[in-house]
Amino acid sequence: SLTAGVVAVQGDVEEHAAAIERAARAHDREVTVHEIGDSGLAPDCDLLAMPGGESTTISRLLHNEGIAAEIQAHVAAGKPLLATCAGLIVASSDAADDRVEELGVLDVTVERNAFGRQKDSFEAPLDVAGLDEPYPAVFIRAPAIDDVGEATVLASWDDRPVAVKQGPVVGTAFHPELTPDSRIHGLAFFENDDATIPALEEP
Ligand code: GLN
């Protein structure tokens, strides 16, 4: 069985855990999900999710708790990471905000709260590279991605990238854990050719 971790500083931790379980089931894999609130847990994980919340708080706590370096090592080892909303901001290389200590595991520049106050939250049918049908994407004070660097754009909204992939890392400006549709978790963890997870054992 695979071991998954959901970074549990803030945000939709249980929803991410449930989405990982749904995606695993859809790919005939077994997974045990742990909450990562302390250092020493992430190194045992085959895959990691980093939820949204408040990026300044999340990044500070990750560095204080020693989890930041473990996430960086996870990505350096080629293991998959899905970073969503504030998680994407924290994963980026530049959030254009001194209060965010970026992990730099995704070579992108982001703009926090990019979609305007009147459109604080919205749902949009998003065309995502690798998915046959549009994905119902929930945006909540979402960031946009300005400079994609070496990353590949998987989806855009209003002409701005909102989902990217770079090697084992997938980042989304929206919240794939808030809909029953687990295809983004599937893409990030089980259909990511650039990431390594233990192979299914032969019966
Ligand atoms: N606006 C938040 C930030 O900039 C992100 C919003 C979210 O994660 N829903 O940190």
UniProtKB/TrEMBL annotation:
Record has Amino-acid biosynthesis as a keyword: no
Function: Catalyzes the hydrolysis of glutamine to glutamate and ammonia as part of the biosynthesis of pyridoxal 5'-phosphate. The resulting ammonia molecule is channeled to the active site of PdxS.
Reaction catalysis annotation: L-glutamine + H2O = L-glutamate + NH4(+); aldehydo-D-ribose 5-phosphate + D-glyceraldehyde 3-phosphate + L-glutamine = pyridoxal 5'-phosphate + L-glutamate + phosphate + 3 H2O + H(+)
Gene Ontology biological process terms in this record: L-glutamine catabolic process; pyridoxal phosphate biosynthetic process; pyridoxine metabolic process
Positions with a binding annotation for L-glutamine: 53-55, 112, 140-141
Protein's UniProt name: Pyridoxal 5'-phosphate synthase subunit PdxT
Annotated EC: 4.3.3.6, 3.5.1.2
GO molecular function, one term: transferase activity
Entry GO terms, CC: cytosol; glutaminase complex
Gene3D superfamilies: 3.40.50.880
UniProt KW Protease keyword: no
Active site: 85 (nucleophile), 175 (charge relay system), 177 (charge relay system)
Assembly and interaction partners: In the presence of PdxS, forms a dodecamer of heterodimers. Only shows activity in the heterodimer.
NCBIfam families to which the protein is assigned, alphabetical: PLP_synth_Pdx2 (TIGR03800)
Metabolic or biological pathway, per its Swiss-Prot or TrEMBL entry: Cofactor biosynthesis; pyridoxal 5'-phosphate biosynthesis
Organism: Natronorubrum sulfidifaciens JCM 14089
